[in-house]
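Hey, I'm writing a tutorial for new members on how sequence and structure tokens pair up, and I'd like a real worked example in the thread rather than a made-up one. If someone can provide the structure for the chain below, I'll link this post from the tutorial.
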Amino acid sequence: MASLNITRDNANLKNFKAIKLILRGRIDSITAKDLRDALRGIDEGEAVVLDFKGVSYIASSGLREILIAAKRLGNDLIKLENVTPEVDDILKTSGFNTFINYTLKEPEAEQNNFKFNIQEMSLNDLLEYKVKSEGDKIFLKAGGFGYSWRDIDAGANAIAQELYNSGVRARSHVALCGVNTVNWVLTFFALQKLGAIAILLNNNQTPEEIVRLSHLGDITHFCLGNIPAFKNNYEEFINKILDPQNSLIHNVIDVRDSVNFMGRDVKDLSGLTRVMPDDICLMIFTSGSTGTPKGVLISANNLINASNYCVENLLMNDKDKTCAVLPLFHIFGLTSVLLASVISGAELILPQNSKPDELMQILSKEHCTILHSVPTVFLRLVNAPDFKPELASSLRASYLSGAPVSESQLEMLMQKLPNNHFVRRYGMSEITPVSRTRYDDSIEHIIKTVGKPIEDFEIKIVNNENQECKTGETGEILVQGRNLMCSYYKLAPDKQPFDAQGFLHTGDLGFLDDDGYLHFVGRSKELIIRGGENIMPDEVAAAISAHEDITEVKVMGVPDEIYGEAVAAAIVLREGASFNEDNMREFLLTKLSRFKIPSLYFIYDKLPVLSNGKIDGVTLKREILAKLNKN
């Protein structure tokens, strides 16, 4: 078992008194708690020096504890010294080198080795285990073909070789963008083999958005998967994301399904790097509530724990078949669909798309037992003209998450899919899952709550004064647990969403009832969630404002029966201008992904404003909802 020894001493740096914590051992997801306890012993106003001379590894959970301490004490009151090259590399990979002060260990100093904890697995360890234990078992099915674990491993090795030849190394920042395909899965595992940071991008993003993310995430390599919007214009797409004047991406690796990686002779890449279970292995961008995308840093340990919660909660086993309709670039799809199937041994079926006809065919033909998705997909399925309950009678369990669903909608889904156990859950990229109903929970709990908190998680509900709310009282949801992200990439401590006790402030509102179930009330910010996709109103408003005929605009989300929320825009036209919705859509297609473009427009002579001159969003939304209710 990993251990961490912490000795408290005094330090004197140029007449600057500080408390010194001498660290010896390995800082991982288990021992990070020891570091947390030691740092909590430092009072505000005191300075602390962390001596890393005997530490050759720090996990994302350990980085998070340093971040929280820096946020509580202040950047100028915390310093790391004698940082080893291994830890230096991790600090640079995570972006912590941009805001944490530290000095390097002298090269002649004696190195401290640590033993790998065999009770923990990296994602590459998990793949190796599957190959050794059940190599010939079919795991993945797509397009009428089946792929065994040996096939998955061989294909991942071939892609890893191609990535390595392109300059990808351990901790390289590599984007993976595309719809769910066999090669997407192979590429994800290839990146884990090399110890690279897999940066999963939404395949609906425009080249301009991807270029912007290249700077936010320091992306150097781009794995090009199947991207429907650019099916007939890949050359222009590639030229834009490789533009040296704008983009940090300097290499594109083609991993579309038209490229066959099976049967290739590849070199043995094992031994190039040792991937640890607590290493940061993933970055997912989330808009959160500020409108600026932020890179969530996640470890393999985070992912495996999150996925295993799903396996245990839904009683998954190797007799199950999972229909992978959720996009795997989302944390929801990655953990509950791909990795939960890996851990449980369930067969993974990749449909061509999420349209009702395709789903009915796949569910009926493959007798799928597991189908997770946002409410929109289920509502479209059961409302399709050709839907018959017997076509989906094999379904036994479904996580329903990622977007709002009304009680009447959920009751209707349970009536039309009577054999299925619908399970509600609540989570986010930063920590998933936070809570979930149980497989055999009561209908009332499934309809009205998002379940009980995960057993080893802490949840607090606080009011505007940051005081803990009473049972049944609504406030902001604060969470802390083993799956908590390391941090947002390169974001300064005072911008990070942690408080001094290490709780993540979600910006979501809810309350806990007498039975300990969490009720999700809504989002305290203006984030729009349309069919599971996050949309920032300010980004959409900025694009609309670029049109020469628009003088004022306010964008907001309004209720929608199918998508949960729809994007609505209230606009003021310049004098003498007329509004044409088709022309506006064509204009916005050059600036935004399709799902971000408003479906509702409301023309105003002037928008209501507050005394400080800002647009009165509350009054405006009330007016728009009143107009919609009249129609």
